[in-house]
Amino acid sequence: MSVPADSFEHVTTSRTASKPAFRCNECGTATTKWVGRCPECQAWGSIAESGPAPRASVRAGAVTTPARPIAELDPDEARPRPTGVAELDRVLGGGLVPGSVVLLAGEPGVGKSTLLLDVAHRYASHDGPPALIVTGEESAAQVRLRAERTGSVHPNLFLAAENDLGALLGHVEAVSPGLLVVDSVQTISTEASDGAAGGVPQIRAVAAALISVAKQRGMATVLVGHVTKDGGIAGPRVLEHLVDVVLHFEGDRHSSLRLVRATKNRYGAADEVGCFEMREDGMVGLPDPSGLFLSDRSAAVAGTCVTVTLEGRRPLVTEVQTLTSRTPPGMTPRRAVSSIEPSRVAMLLAVLQRYDKRLPYADSDVYASTVGGMAACEPAADLAIALALASAMRDSPIAPAVCAVGEVSLSGDVRRVPGLDRRLAEAARLGFTTALVPFGHKGEAVSSASAGIHTLPVQTVHDAIMAVLALTGKPEHSQRRPRLRAVSAAPNRSLAVPQPQ
């Protein structure tokens, strides 16, 4: 039986149109078949069927604003406006840009709402449009109590407690703010989308609506986001693509230090870090936080060494502390590490055991941490960790005015690190007189910004230990500048291996 050509075309088109389409719940990528892992965002189990694929053709339509020559556009409309919080402005690239959307994510209780309340108060204090805070997690009275405690009450600052997107947009129409803070985007929902508040469809719809309103009104918008147990931002991955700036607010509950990192910034550098201290009266910026990461003691202690890490573009002097003890017979050596990568500590112990076989690194319990909760996870801290371990094994301190910067390889070599000039300049400013650096950085290669600090190039870990041996006990290295603290002279003990009785 023959089938007419037009009937065949109709059957083929119907089958093609009814073919299901699949879409990623994280980034929104569409695929023609189901796969276990999204090819775009690499998320597992995020592909779900979204119905038949649409086959509508797109035609040219009316434009909202005509295209203009780039030279005729006014760049002042996109100039950042300072928030009044210097550390936040550093991370944002100068301030908030009108019409920009910022996503601030962090652990619960880290201080996101407190920081943004201060930002909104400072914005409202200037002569200009008001600031509006819409909270979906607290009542307006609770936010009012916090504002009274932190001194953030101002008549030009408006508060509203809403969970519906339509009501939120109604407040925007009534107040006409220049700054909108939504705390948080996971608590806002809309009837135009399926699912409960905080789900992927709801977050996508709410974020798209808020971004559209922010662009149309030229209103700076800050969205507070929740994080998952893995530290990622809760919700679809497409949320981070839609916003202009993504900030992460980090901090330990047992420490007052808070760090704001930029992982995406369309208006500035994405490697800046802002430092804050949580106090009873709110968040306080720390323009010079290096002193928080150095212990305050009157005498040098074995097992400690100072290094300079780079957080974004900011050099921070950090003290590494280690403690070693012989493992009881029949027990497995224990490794306890805090604010340092355990894998790097294990690697450095293997390197020290390989090239310093006289000491039982492999048969000792090792504890390593940093002072002040500052993470020393970059490879530039390897040399300081290795010297601290060697000092702890010998129970002999390193000269207080000595710092070490360098990456240690598996062969025991000390490799170069980026930004050495900035690291040495910060160490010299805080009173350190000698720095152990990789051999490739000669003393004459260091810029004049680090004048006042003597550099000792070392090629291997063994050379670094020998250099520390030569410096121990010298008077010029036994004191630090009074700017940090008064440190008494270190005991006149060398780093020699203890002899058996």
Question: How would you portray this structure in words?
Answer:
The protein is an alpha/beta fold. It folds into 3 domains: 20-50; 80-287, P-loop containing nucleotide triphosphate hydrolases (Rossmann fold), CATH 3.40.50.300; 291-477, Ribosomal Protein S5, domain 2. Helices cover 26% and strands 23% of the residues. The chain has helices spanning 5-18, 86-92, 112-125, 140-150, 165-175, 200-217, 238-242, 342-355, 382-394, 420-429, 461-471; strands at 20-24, 30-31, 47-52, 101-106, 131-135, 157-161, 179-183, 220-225, 245-251, 257-265, 273-279, 282-285, 304-311, 314-326, 335-337, 364-370, 402-404, 407-408, 414-415, 434-438, 454-458. Helix 8 (342-355) crosses helix 9 (382-394) and helix 9 (382-394) crosses helix 11 (461-471). The chain starts with a helix and ends in a 30-residue tail after the last helix.
Main attributes of the structure:
single chain, 501 residues, alpha/beta, Rossmann fold, Ribosomal Protein S5, domain 2, 3 domains, nine-stranded mixed sheet, four-stranded mixed sheet, 11 helices, 21 strands, elongated
